[in-house]
Please model this.
Amino acid sequence: MAAHAPARTRDLTRKRPRQIALSVLCGCLLRRHGRKYSSFVRLSIAAIQSDTAYAGRYDERDLKENELKIYFAGPLFSEAERDWIRGVKRQIEEVANARGADIALIWPYELITREELEALGDSAKYEIHSRCRSHLENADLLIAVLDGTQVDDGTAWEIGYYYGLRRDHSRIIGVRTDFRNAGEAKNSIVNAMIECSCSSIARSTAELLATITARIFGVPL
Model:
């Protein structure tokens, strides 16, 4: 049997020099001079956000027609959280490779570097929000980690935003490996607004991979 070509994954941290320069300059001016350059900063931020080739957006010239764009939302603040997502991300890429599928797997942790965060200072939060939002708008599928007594607040926002944007082909697949129920009703898995926004909720890593394989790549494991 002929081997499938490797799944095409791309570096999503690419930046354009002009946009980085403007972002860093805005942050530096705000920290050093406060209100003195506030008008310039507002105009610069508007210019960056209105740019169709904005660093957080896909360049349409780089996209293949059938490439599947997957956004992986979940808490990423502890080593355990990041390690788990890295492991699942790697397994999804292996499944895509085995099926010969082209995917772009977007993980917010990889969208901005620590150096950028330090350089941007107080304005870093706007950059994080803008990059994540623009990738959500381009995603075909949202995977959301729902573990914990409450769903991570950032993940909950991403679910709600993507649900409001959803198209006929787009789906939200939740994954909750936490055995506790955290919803309002007796048999609820999580908060009703979260649970009812999901197309399905997997209860284990294996179930998540099976769901993605069967529903997205069309072939069961």
Remarks:
- Residues 1-18, 35-63 have pLDDT under 50 and may be disordered.
- The first strand starts at residue 68 and ends at 73.
- The CA atoms of residues 69 and 138 lie 7 Å apart.
- The beta strands are 68-73, 103-106, 141-145, 171-175, 200-202.
